[in-house]
Give the backbone structure.
Amino acid sequence: MAAGEFRLRVCYAKAGRARFLSHLEVMRALERSARRAALPYAVTKGFSPRMKAAFGPALPVGTAGEREYFDVWLTQPVPAPEALERLGSATPPDLRVAEARYVHEKGPSLTAAATVARYEVAVGGEGVTAELIEKALVTVVGEGRLEVEHKGKIKVFDLARSLPEEARVRSCGPPVILEVTTRMGQEGSLRPDVLLTEALSRVPCDGAVVSVTRTDILIEEEGVLRRPL
């Protein structure tokens, strides 16, 4: 970090039509918001200087997010409440900002620090019940591993590691809403919709994942989970 730069961390939501934006499109939209907010942002060095910003783990297209994060480096320390207000006025409603705070300039990046995610998954369809889904999940998790094919390659997830918390039913619906917690990392991240789709294939029902929302991104330190802000 260059001298005289200040790392502002912003929490935002990805909802409504914005959930169909790619990660790159979200990045560009929020960078435009920072420009419209007239924040004194720092720029990178080199032949193609750009806004100095970093974003948290990407969301799949179609997945909403309640507490997503990005960092932007400023050349002047604008008070966090003022920066939040200015960003709020310049950001589309479906990417609304909710919180802003300065963080340590030497801290790890969001993608390196945030290794756990919580989701709400809605499952609907003929014959779908909370009891049936719970039974199916017990069966899949009990097998200990899950093979997932992606872009012609097979990825094997160790479910004991990939699922740090037991999935649980939050609402019996319809649709049935489940809370699922998964680990993220360089070795790959288990998508909750993939887990639920596999579970549904094991039971006699015509069920399908209706929607997925990432409700939290968490940092794990010595077995304790905390939010980036």
In short: The mean pLDDT is 93.
